[in-house]
Structures are given as C-alpha cells and as structure tokens.
Amino acid sequence: MTMEAAHRFPHKHLLSLEDLSRDDIGLVLSVAASLKEISTRSIKKVPTLRGKTVINLFFEPSTRTRLSFEIAAKRMSADTYNIAAATSSARKGESLVDTARNLAAMAPDVIVIRHACSGTPQLLTNHIDASVINAGDGAHEHPSQGLLDLMTVQEHKGRIAGLTVAIIGDIAHSRVAHSNIIGFTKMGARVRVAGPATLIPPGIARLGAQVCSTMHKAVDNADVVMALRIQTERQNESLVPSLREYARFFGISSRTIAAAKPDAIIMHPGPINRGVELDPALADGPRSVILEQVTNGVAVRMALLYLIMGGN
Amino acid sequence: MASPHPPLLLKNGRVIDPVSGTDKRCAILVADGRIAGTGKQFRASSLPAGARTIDLKGKWLCPGFIDMHVHLREPGEEYKETIASGARAAAAGGFTAVACMPNTRPVNDCATVTALILEQARHAPARVYPVGAISQGSRGEALAEYGELKKAGAVAVSDDGRPVTNGQLMRRALEYAGNFGLRIISHAEDLGLSGVGVMNEGDLSTRLGLRGIPRPAEDIMVYRDISLACYTRRPIHIAHVSTKETVALIRWAKANGCQVTAETAPHYFTLTEEAIGKYNTLAKMNPPLRTLEDVAAIKAGLADGTIDAIASDHAPHSPLEKEVEFDLAANGIIGLETAVPLALELVRAGVLTEARLVELFSVNPARILGVEGGTLAEGARADLTVIDPARKFVYTRDMVVSRSANTPFLGQTFHGKAVLTIVDGMITHSEL
Ligand SMILES: [Zn+2]
C-alpha cells in the first residue's frame, strides 16, 4: 500500500481534535479514503499492522464504536483484545492508574479507551507508553467520530470549507458535538448549534459555533443537518421537561429540514431515539447518510491505527 | 506549653506590629514564654541569665501567624495527615497556630473529639485550635452541642466541606452560637447549583467537557449568610472567598454595618482555572479556581480590608485520591508551607503592605477566632513569625513537611519565606 502524503502525522496519541492541525485532519481523511476500498474487497484484510496489538478498553457500554475499532484493527491484521468494564478489574475497585500499569506490562501498541469521565485518556497517557486513542471521554471529545463525520460530508459535498453545518440538540453533554464543532470549524465550515437553552453550554461560541435561538435559524440554508442523541436522564435533571415536548419542539422533522438547502444531508452519530430527535422517515429517507457514517467509521479508524502505529 | 527554655534576644529585625503601629528596627526580649521587652538596645547586663541572642538583620519580626482554616485529617484519615505532621508543616510554613476544621472521621461535633484533638496536639510544634461542627455529624439537620464544644476547647463552629443548606438551621446556629461566643464559619455553597460540578463553569469547562460550578453557587449562599447575620445581629465569617461577586457582597455588607469577616486562600489570588490545563487534579478544589477577574477582585479585597484573613485551606490528600479521573478526584491542596511565600508575592507586587500582610495572617485571625495573639506588646505570649523576604527557594518534593504532597506549586521558585517560628518563646522551626 502506498500513501502519497506530503504531510507526516506527528501525533503519538489521538486525544482530541483540538490537538490536530488542518493538515493532520486532511491527512487522516485522505488515508481513510484510500483504505475504504479494502472493506469492499472479498477478502477484507491487508497485512499492514501484523504483529501489532490493539486493546479496546471500554468503561462505558458501546457496541458500535467498539466493534468499529475492532473491525478496523482486524482488517489491518492487528491483534485485538476487548476489555469491557463489566468484566475487567475496574469493577473490583482497581484504579485506572493500576489498570494502565497492568496493561502497560503486556506491551500493547495502541489502547483505545472510552470512559464516562472527561480527560481519562489523558490520564492514561501519563502512565503508559502505548499510543492512546480516545473513543469518547465524558462530555469532552469523540475525535474519531468527528473525523468520520468530516469524511462523510467531504464525500457528499466534495469539500468542507464554506459549508454550513447545523448541529441540533444536547450540545452540553455531547462529545460528538464538541469534536464536530472543532473539526468542522478547523476545516473552514460554519457551524451553528441550536437546542433547548438548558443544553447549550456556556462558552460554546469559543469553540467556534454560532448559537442560534431557534431551530429555523440554525437550519436555514444549511448544507448539513446533524441531530444528536438525547439521553432520557436529561428529564430527571430538569434540563428538558419531557421527551414528548423535546420531540415536538427540538426534533428534526420534514418541516424543520425544509429550511435547509434542497441537497442538505442528514446525519446522526447513533444510536437514534427514533421519533424523538429525528423523524424516522428522515432517518431512513434519501437525504440520510447515517449508514455511510458507520461505513466511514471503519475506514477512519483504519487510517488512525495506521498513522499512529508509524505508517507514513 | 510554657516551659523553662532559655530567654531569647531577637535583635536587628524589622519589627512589624500593626496593632501598635510599630514598623521599625528594634530588639525584642523573650523570657518565660512572654515578650519581656522591646527596645532599641538591650545592655548585656540587663539580659536574663543564659539568654541566647539571635540576629535578625534583614528579617521581619511579626506576631505569630495563625492559619485559621486547615484540615488535619486526624482522627480518621491519618494516612493523609496527622495533627503532629500537620503542626510540623505549620511550623515550617511560619505558623504558630492553626484552626482545624471538623470534617474528620468522626466529625468533631462533640466534646470527646475536640478533647482528643487537643490531646494529640499537646506536644505539637504549633497551637491547634479545634473548630467544632455547626450540626451533628455536619449533616445539616440538628445543632451540635456548642456549649460542650466550647468547654472542651473549640474556638468556632463550621460545617466546612459541606454547606449548611437549610437557612433556618443557619439562623438558629448564629443565634445559639451567641450564647457561647463562638463564631460561625460558613462554607458558602448552594449544592443545587454546584451539583456534580468539578470546576468553574465557563468557556474552559465546556472545552474540557467537565461539569461546571457556576459562580452564583457561592454568591447566593454568601448573601443568605450575610442577611441572616444582619438579621440576628450576630457575626459570621465567610470561608475561602473565590468570586468577585462575593468580594463585592462582603464589601457592601461591611459598609452597612454587618458583622461579617472573610478569608481567602492563596490559590484564589494566585491561580485561575487555567491551572487545570490537561485535567490536572492538583488544581481541583472547592470552591473551584476561577478567572483573572476574580483574582483581581480578591487582591483588591485583601488590600482594602474587605477580606480579613488569608487561610490556606490546607487539604492533604494521597495519590489514591488525586491520581485518578478528574471527576473522581478529591478537592483541595496542601497549603501550610506555601501560604506565606505566595502572600509575599503580593507584597513584592505592591498589592499588600508588610503591615497589611501581618494583619491578614496574625492580627485578624486572632481577633476573629477570639484567641490570644496578633500583638507584640510587652507581656504578650511569645508566638512569633520571622520572615526573610529575600530568601529565594525552589519548593521541591523533598522539602514537603506535610504527610501529603498534593500541591500544584511543586517546582515553583519563591522569593521569601518564614525562616524562624517561635511558640511560647520556644523555637519550633528554624532555617536562619
Ligand atoms: Zn470549605
């Protein structure tokens, strides 16, 4: 496999999109685009990362992201091991630092970590030599999701610079929103956010997003409309009165989407609460690129593993 | 603690005694644990037998510094700190006395625990003034026995670490504490607003994806406490001021005749939330580090008398509580050994005069707690702090006297420190 990249990936870890330059992101996207073809072959495997060890360390339940990383690693011939919090010693009260030291003793090349506490991937890097990939930490970032969303938009629109991206919903608790705001603005798009004011955090404008007071203002003439998952817990925290009310006033329907560009695409990081944040007809309709996001997720994660394990 | 040890002649120092308005070079004679005399010169023949002379050229000789807000962790968490180790850290930091908060295990809400603390402190190198709990178990439900606490030796009451959520209970505490002359020390925090927050709420908390503690969480409770203090005509002391709004509220309350006093900690006039950097748990405290505007307001409050005292909020924790996920990390840092050097930075920067520094560390804490101290008058107890404003040092792990080393100031270079600490006329720490 040859990659004609003028730019070298200068990072040992992938903790946040904040750490990546425009060139870094461009490199990941171009490598992902060339690796995507492997997944369409009848034998979906290349030997590039043979002998490398990838540990998926998941402290939060996740099927999609964990599976996506696992498939990505296997298609590159790396050995993968999955540790879920439910089966690991983390449940027995072992501290993260102890877990890290134990894993370090087994000399993995990459640890993919998901954790409910923001900053945990950073903590892991302080205690382990392996590369660390953040697969979602608290409300901080989910950089590989941001990258796969960029890739999907790039494929559909042929560019990212100059586009208008509307992100709708629970911005405050969404690591996906944070990575996307950072990623899209870094690549030259305009990002607008809207949702219940209780779910728009202070300082989100500092990340580069324009806060809109209505759904219409956010979606108006947008090229991309992204819905975020609303967690049912938000009702108990008095952040939204009910999911019913949320669906009616903040869910994305064909009426909302009418304000967007005629060729606007609809995205969602999954899993979808159908009929709450997104009308099912739209999720399954022709403008939805939700399944392509999933496909691109594998390609982006193959690219990340490749670049981080020294491929250039 | 008074015991036979040689008289001391402390000469050539710059004697700073704000109560008498003294700021001049002179000598102080210490004998029998008391200040026996002050003068320009002491003739050798007038010195008591066996007197030891110490030359304090270039140093400041001040009434003993009192840290009115520390956590000594004993009883219950002796792996973090003990009364003995905490008192050693106090002496090393230039403090002759500390007031220890009641959030131990068990909580210091009764005479037995107060007596145990005082027993453990009997041979310690610093005076230890126990602070009793406002409510039984600091649960915020029922008043603790203030009469018993006072009799056993408590100097004030506080539910520090936890706010008193119920306004009625705070009102009753203020009223009832009046019977015993105990000051209420309020940890002002609206728990509903601070919620599961772990740092100041704002741009940075959003960027780091950490839950925020909004500034009103402090301000609202400070106002409630000021209001209750005015209403009951009782004094209240606000602990660890961290926001500019709180500074303004206290300034307003004082101007309106409320008996309110306040303290802040060195980290609130030195650091901002930016110290969290990449999730550094050594910058996690409650109240949280705020912003540059708050730091500026707190400095102004220290200078103009709005804030009465600097207290370290010394909060020892082991790596078990700090080398963990930011959300799970315990709040607080040790501060006994860095409080004076950090405050000296304000003197160097022209924010505080030397006399004001002594008021903040000695005169006012003594007055607020109602304990002896804060003066160099003849006959006063010989609790003394000597500062070398020119002593440059790097604070390293090896220097840490406390049993814990959870501080963001390791590796920092300081200009000035306490170099001699004297309690009851006895030297408890010296690095002259
Ligand atoms: Zn407190």
Task: Tell me the series of helices and strands of chain A, N- to C-terminal.
Answer: HEHEHEHEHEHEEHEHHHEHH
Distance between the termini of chain A: 10 Å
Number of strands of chain B: 18
Specify Rg of chain B, calculated over alpha carbons.
Answer: 21 Å
> Could you give the order of strands across the largest sheet of chain A?
7-6-5-8-9
Helix/strand structural class of chain A: alpha/beta
Q: Strand count, sense and closure of the main sheet of chain A?
A: 5 strands, parallel
- In total, the number of strands of chain A is 9
- Given as residue ranges, the uncertain stretches of chain A (5+ residues, pLDDT < 50) are none
Polypeptide structure, described:
The complex is a heterodimer of chains A (312) and B (432). By secondary structure, chain A is α/β, with parallel strands linked by helices. Chain A is built from 12 helices and 9 strands. Chain A has helices at 22-35, 64-75, 96-104, 120-125, 143-157, 175-186, 215-219, 233-236, 243-250, 254-257, 280-283, 290-308, and strands at 53-58, 79-84, 110-115, 131-137, 164-168, 190-194, 209-211, 224-227, 265-267. In chain A, the strands form 2 sheets. In chain A, strands 7-6-5-8-9 form a 5-stranded parallel sheet. In chain A, strands 2-1-3-4 form a 4-stranded parallel sheet. In chain A, α2 (64-75) links the parallel β1 and β2. The radius of gyration of chain A is 19 Å and the shape is globular. The mean pLDDT of chain A is 92. With 432 residues, chain B is an alpha/beta fold. Chain B has 2 domains: 8-61 and 379-401 and 413-430, Urease, subunit C, domain 1 (Roll); 64-369, Alpha-Beta Barrel (TIM Barrel). In chain B, α8 links the parallel β13 and β14 (260-264). The longest helix of chain B is centred in the middle third of the chain and has 17 residues, at 216-232. Chain B starts with 7 loop residues before the first strand and ends with a strand. Residues 160-161, 187, 239-240 of chain B line the site of zinc ion.
